[in-house]
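Help wanted!
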Amino acid sequence: MYRPQNLRLPGPTFVPQAVLQASARPMINHRGPEFAALLAAVTRALQDFLQTRNDVLLLTASGTGGLEAAIVNVLSAGDKVLAFNNGAFGERWAAMAKAYGLDVRRVDVPLGRAIEPELVRDELRKEGPNGARAVLLTHNETSVGVLNPLREIAPIIRESGKLFLVDSVSGAGAVELDIDGWGIDVCVTASQKAWGAPPGLSMVTVGERAWKATERATLPRYYFDFQKAKASLEKGATPWTPAVTVVIALQEALRLMSEEGLEGIIQRHVDLARATRRGVQALGLGLFSDENYASPTVTAVRSPARVDSRNLARVLRDEYDVVVAGGQGKLEGQIFRLGHMGFVTISDITSMLGALELALRRFNVTAEPGTAITAALRAFAAEPVVAGARRG
Amino acid sequence: MYRPQNLRLPGPTFVPQAVLQASARPMINHRGPEFAALLAAVTRALQDFLQTRNDVLLLTASGTGGLEAAIVNVLSAGDKVLAFNNGAFGERWAAMAKAYGLDVRRVDVPLGRAIEPELVRDELRKEGPNGARAVLLTHNETSVGVLNPLREIAPIIRESGKLFLVDSVSGAGAVELDIDGWGIDVCVTASQKAWGAPPGLSMVTVGERAWKATERATLPRYYFDFQKAKASLEKGATPWTPAVTVVIALQEALRLMSEEGLEGIIQRHVDLARATRRGVQALGLGLFSDENYASPTVTAVRSPARVDSRNLARVLRDEYDVVVAGGQGKLEGQIFRLGHMGFVTISDITSMLGALELALRRFNVTAEPGTAITAALRAFAAEPVVAGARRG
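Answered by r_m:
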């Protein structure tokens, strides 16, 4: 029997039919006026959603490519960088910086915990004026479902005068992110996350301080060169052939997002994340991470005792067509991660939770049918918690 | 009135409806069994078309990204490389090598001429055993419509023992290319060229000598790291989120290509290229490049005296919906380039030539109506010239 999948990954996320259809439009010239108009429109819409007047560059690459671009364009070999890390993606970014010969001081936070403002303040104090030239910070750590409190951290980094590079690959477009207000110099996101488009594009904002930094940065670069991208953008193009169909899809996704509006999108993610957490907790499952910093886009759940989360994910996929993510690295088998990022409704969440109830029975973890769904609906219907004020 | 475009660019090329539709399938998990099966099937089909048992890596990037990957994975800063150059893409690759701190000796051939075996032999002789570690060579130089005679050049480079890196971005899948037989260590192509899929993927073959070279190569790399790509490929995945919809599209395009078969595809390109050349010549226009090495995938044509080719291209596009490419760099305004790469039929060529006749009238270049089309059809119907034996 044909059954559509409920793609509950933290990326690639569900792509609406209208967006997929848009991506199937006939191919166009990437150096012609149609593409120039498309690029201008997408760039403008992204600036709105990212709350920035900075340049937004479209790179044909995954988010990881965008993170590499952030490093190679503003830094030089031997530069000291301070990399805050509370999960696999923070780790990856730090590893990348090391691969490029940067002098990386990594500050690790236990998995499941957030990077808190006090820590950032203390670590920056240790650096002093001859210390790190840049701070690398993951906004939404997808591997553990933690949203680091960037609103509180940003002014501390800004005050230090250091370059402020942010990985918001899985946050931007779904959670509060005030690039200009918070003074973020380079911010990286990707098409297949909250934006609900297919993968293939990384969108990178570049501010004035970052542009200045590109002038003295000597790390080798060509494909990811920001200056080349900007020079082309001014002529309505990209320096190299872009993923045209993904750009077209992204335009349609942004149009759908505009109908809802950024505020509504942010609130919906908060509400769906709360519903998800209450649902899994009602089944007796534990949240992996500090709920004070629970990510609105992905929830990490501890697998029940003696249940390998890979097996649970397999049953969910093969028997119930619900696709969830497992744990990464040390957390493999220990946790599973539920994505509620992008074009997601409460129906997607209840459908997922119903499947989870049934799948758990296969591992002798039973609950009264409807337990998770009821809890989720109750949480969803409750007085909405205002987005961005989760710590109150 | 709705009029479909006749996309006669040397990339992105026309994407068949079936391929576009495939790319609009629902999003899938890039770490699940469906994607693993897809990746394995695409890799196998690419190995067949590229006549290689080498690894084929899919990088989410344009062809330029693939060319960068070729450099950073097998070379180290200061390494000498010999870069043969007969156009904008050869120039770009050499510039990229320089940007990565390589010691590049560029051998320039006048625009419109091929890189001939004798030249390669002479230049390699100058290098000697302590000379260049690698040779960079563009197979099909898109900017001038020249196919360099790789069959004759390959044994010379192979004999030298140097790493043999080939840009066949706009050649592979349409012209003769025997990666294993010719001993090519790294060969780069891209989805939006002869493969008829949307842009977003670069496909790179990596042979044994190249794998050995990755072990001592010290250029910094992360996103484009071949070893990471191979480790993931062995687990049926890519290290970073791939352009999933483009991979699905590429699978469908490869299926369509299999129906025709590589030999048929190669012959068709030779025949369509010949028809194109005869068509434009019948209008009194000159070919820009040495016809002995005419590219089967793109033809560069001199714009008539006092006609800026940009204006001609604009009339073709705006009035006849035929999209052609202009000249690059020094050739801007001087030439226009007609793409006949990928899923192209003789109807696409005659339709383009009819439009060209009409458009030229706007610039007071007139011919008896039907002149170009007649010449093209005559050339197409004539005893076919066997592909790969164009010099006889």
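OP: Thanks! One thing I noticed: Chain B touches chain A through 55 residues (CB under 8 Å).
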